[in-house]
Every structure is written in structure tokens, then in C-alpha cells.
Design goal:
66 residues, mainly alpha, flat
């Protein structure tokens, strides 16, 4: 899931965030998947909203004590 990798890399402590550094942090060989998200991908705002909310709730659920 490229979007999730990009969000995690953007939120990480990566100095001077650019596509190469974010890709390296995410373990990708090249920044092309991230660049595609920014310049070539077709976005559906509702799907993106749902995925962001789902990612947030999953992360929040992992932080809650059991």
C-alpha cells in the first residue's frame, strides 16, 4: 500500500523530506511510487478519506492498553 508507506514516511523523522529520502525511509528502491501518487494517480476523495480514517483508528487501537 503505497499511500500508507508515504504517510508513514511523511510522519517519520526524516530530515529534508523529498521523494528520494521518503522512498529510502520506506524501503523502496526508487521514489517512483510516491511520485506517481503526486503526479499521475487518479484520486477519489471519499476513498482517500475512508482509508485515512481507517489507518488512524487502527493505529489508535494499537496504542490502547489491553
Amino acid at each position: 500500500m503505497t499511500f500508507g508507506l508515504m504517510v508513514r514516511a511523511l510522519l517519520a523523522d526524516v530530515p529534508k523530506k523529498n521523494s528520494w529520502r521518503l522512498a529510502e525511509h520506506a524501503g523502496l528502491a526508487t521514489p517512483r511510487p510516491f511520485e506517481h501518487l503526486l503526479d499521475g494517480a487518479v484520486w477519489d476523495a471519499e476513498v482517500l478519506r475512508i482509508r485515512c480514517v481507517t489507518m488512524w483508528w487502527r493505529a489508535w487501537d494499537r496504542l490502547l492498553p489491553r
